[in-house]
Specification:
Elements (H helix, E strand, L loop, with lengths): L2 E8 L4 H14 L4 E7 L7 E8 L12 E6 L2 H6 L4 E10 L6 H6 L6 H10 L1 E5 L1 H5 L8 H12 L6 H11 L2 H18 L1
Parallel strand pairs: 1-4, 4-5, 5-6
Antiparallel strand pairs: 1-3, 2-3
Length: about 190
């Protein structure tokens, strides 16, 4: 199997854990995996981008125009990374924005809607709402695993859902495993 997956968001959204779950699940299935993270000012809400390349690759970074699936935790980050998406690739994006600090200082009106409209006009897209999807869990902190579930449920991830669930059990602290499994399954159901 050959699959290039780019995960993007802002610091604190769990993009790195999502990339590690994808990579380790693919490795457990016997695939060669390369991955890399670009973590700018992540602790201050800055951009975070993770590249996961399943199958043979000459570099851990996905070349522009070659990404199969773009998992975006934030609408502006989806647009910022859209140049990586290949023709016919899929964007799975959260419609709830993370407002930058400048928004609170200048009231720019950023609500993510313009970004979502732009994506809908440019590519195949699945739009999800982190607040709605995570309501039953009481926290949007589970959204990273929900979004991973949406990707698995779309059939575009290329990894068996059981392999991802196995990695959730192995890599998430024990007291959060059950909630993360439920979040993953909620994401899968939302994709259907």
């Amino acid at each position: 199997m050959k699959k290039d997956i780019l995960i993007c968001g802002v610091g604190g959204q769990g993009t790195v854990l999502a990339s590690k779950l994808i990579a380790s699940a693919a490795m457990e299935e016997g695939c060669t995996v390369h991955s890399a993270e670009t973590i700018g000012m992540a602790q201050r809400g800055g951009s975070v981008t993770s590249h996961v390349r399943i199958g043979e690759a000459s570099s851990p970074l996905i070349p522009k125009g070659k990404c199969d699936v773009l998992l975006a935790f934030e609408p502006a980050e989806a647009v910022r990374n859209l140049s990586y998406l290949k023709q016919g690739g899929l964007v799975i994006v959260n419609e709830v924005p993370v407002k930058p600090t400048t928004e609170s200082l200048q009231e720019t009106g950023y609500d993510g809607k313009e970004m979502i409209a732009y994506l809908r006009g440019k590519c195949r897209v699945i739009v999800v709402n982190s607040e709605d999807l995570c309501k039953e869990f009481g926290s949007t902190k589970y959204f990273n695993v929900c979004l991973l579930g949406v990707a698995a449920g779309s059939g575009e991830l290329g990894i068996a859902p059981a392999s991802v669930e196995e990695q959730i059990r192995a890599r998430v602290p024990e007291k959060f495993v059950e909630a993360n499994l439920m979040a993953f399954r909620a994401g899968m159901a939302a994709a259907r």
